[in-house]
Amino acid sequence: KRQRGTVGSRRLAWVNREKIWKKKNVIRDFARIVRLKEKNEELIEFLDMEGLFPILDLPDELISNIFSILPMKDRLRARVNRRLNAIEARSKYVEKSLEIVEAATNSDDDPVFKGVTRIVVSEDKTYSECIRKIARNTYFESLTIDLSGPSEFHSMIKEFNIGYLLLMFNDEEMEDEIVVDSFFVEAIKTCKHLDMFSMDNITAEALHELFKKKMSGEIKLGKLECEMAKLETCISFLRLIGITFRAGKFYSNRDIEVYEKWDEEKLDGVFIFDGAANMYFGHCQDEMFDDDFGCFSVSFSNRREWPNNNQGEYEKIEVYPE
Amino acid sequence: PNVKLVTSDNEEFVVDFRIAKMSVTVSRLMEAMNMSETDDASLLSNSIPLPNVTKAVMARVIEWCEKHKNDEPKEEKENDKRGRTTHVVSDWDKEFLKNDEFGRLCQLMGAANYLEIKGLFNDISQTIANMIHGKKSDEIAEMFNIHCDLTEAEKKEIRKKTAWCED
């Protein structure tokens, strides 16, 4: 025997039923609108669609546009049905910057650049497919990669298309292990501006290779910066491009300009412009290192680009024929 | 000088030439019809048919264009370079779009896309994106009344692939 409810509960049932009816009406209207839309667009105007966002009514390209401007985490969460999931997979990422931190454990540090999405990848390999997809679909204005080695994330770098790439390492030994010629050759292909801390294990030949690739138009890299480069490597590299440095003097048969910057009695930096590249060899920021190391940067341009835009500091010196 | 625009429901809107030019589509059509700002006869004798836009939507579009007709072309700021691309919806635009019900907003987006009015289109896209921002999957599904047709296995697969970027 069915129990009869109290007046209150029956009232509630009515209210609920009314609500359900209202909802049904809206859904019915909505279905009608979709049907009508094909026949007569203007009729839609008369129908009230309060509370319903016919997002699925939009063509794929417009939904895709919304996905593209969503922050990465939001857009991945928004794949709530098959169609959205499929559109998401096709949508471009316009995430301008990304910081990828390779770490065994989640770290809560702030990103290096303010406001940048920071994702942590760990030894768990499930990220690779997704990151690979993002890498292929996206041009990143800036990408910071903080490597610590456990997941061999560095091998994925060639999948990216980047404006400014900043490479950071947790561990010096690992950096020496990873940043070798083969890695360097891949890295210079992926970005327009490469910024790295050290390149101890990169040979003068690899730097020369970079120049050749740039001159043949094979790569788009416009700038390379290295905080700490071996002076010996830099000198060997200069020799490969026809510039000899010996006993404080420059010798070359090419049409080059060489400038020096002095800090009181000490040579602080050398700037060379060869018509296609601006090269700077400077004093290490870090006082810990001796004179065997210096910062090194190359910026490809057929115009002179003064380091730090500070022309006043430089004095032209003579270049002797070889 | 004025330009006549005719909507799908045969309503004629007479707008300033400058307003009409804000739509890439209209500007292209005017060019094709040899209508020019300096040639009054060409403007008087022609009207631009816009079969994909209704009267009600057109009125909203024109209202937006009126407000923005003196806008400077947007320049990208150098210091934005490392941040994420976000289109900032101005307060006036927020207020303007707030009055639109969801359905209307979608139509307006369709119209902005068809008419190629980039500013309005970005405003609406960003407004919708802002609505999605920070919401959980089920909240998004509820807000948009989306029926989830993914199987449990598919859901699991999606979750697995994106676990690395979830909080």
Automatic annotation (TrEMBL), chain A:
InterPro entries on file: F-box-like_dom_sf, F-box_dom
Looking at the record, the residues that make up the F-box domain are 52-79
SUPFAM superfamilies hit by this protein? F-box domain
Q: Which CDD domains match?
A: F-box_SF
Its name, as the record gives it, is: F-box domain-containing protein
TrEMBL record, chain B:
Keyword match DNA-binding: no
Which branch of life, at top level? Eukaryota
What are the GO BP annotations of this UniProt entry?
ubiquitin-dependent protein catabolic process
Q: Which InterPro entries match?
A: SKP1, SKP1-like, SKP1-like_dim_sf, SKP1/BTB/POZ_sf, Skp1_comp_dimer, Skp1_comp_POZ
Q: Which UniProt keywords apply?
A: Ubl conjugation pathway
Q: Which residues form the SKP1 component dimerisation domain?
A: 118-165
The segment(s) forming the SKP1 component POZ domain are 2-70
Q: Which Pfam families match?
A: Skp1 (PF01466), Skp1_POZ (PF03931)
Record's family? Belongs to the SKP1 family.
What protein name applies here?
A: Skp1-related protein
